[in-house]
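Here is one chain, start to finish.
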Amino acid sequence: MFKILFLFSILFFVITSCSNYNEIIKGDDYNKKFELANQLFDNDDFLKSIVLYEQIYQHAPKSGEGELAYYRLGTSYYNSEDYYMAGYYFSSYIQRFPYSAKNEELMFLAAMCKVRNSPEIALDQTETEDAINAVQVFVDTYPTTALMDSCNQIIDRLRLKIETKEFNHVMLYAQTERYRATVASAEIFLEKYPASIYAEEAFSTMIRNSYYLTLNSIESKKSVRIDETIERMRKFEADFPSSDKVKSLQQLVNKLLN
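Its structure:
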């Protein structure tokens, strides 16, 4: 019996709250709208608070309540993980209220929206590049920010993501025995990322595929490709003298020489 009464009281509370919410939305009392919006926001009911904050801002965009409503619109979307809408409101807030003390925070959050929209490695990384640019612009705008270390770590992580995708392209060409494409893509990768954590693997893959490309070449091209493979091997030994790959790669080069 007690359990039934408890469930009934909860149901009554929910129905009453919903009725009250709908009445305030349809009504013209903006003080009640603002009060309820703040209550909902504080209770993490962000989707409901968004409706009210939009009404409040449209009613009085230049007021203190309007400014806070616009700020909390962005925050509500962010907390609801709608980063496209959150990024729009954060960036728009800075334009509408250029002298606000919140602008450093919101410029960082707008950049973080782009970071969170960065796709997984297998997908197109245009949004990742946009995220890097957004974080860099924030750092350039606020060079003394306490978030500098965090920003640098975020940029490094995003750059590694793009770097990994391009390295994966090299390895995919190698796995499918596309020797010419492997060599060409590896050369581009190493030129672009000479200090990459993947540099040794990309370089050794390039030499192996340079060897197979030479073997499968017509006679008129073999001499030039042998010389190219030897030169690549010399550079690999200079760049990675302690690599455990040197011995096996040198054996391939010796086969070409013989």
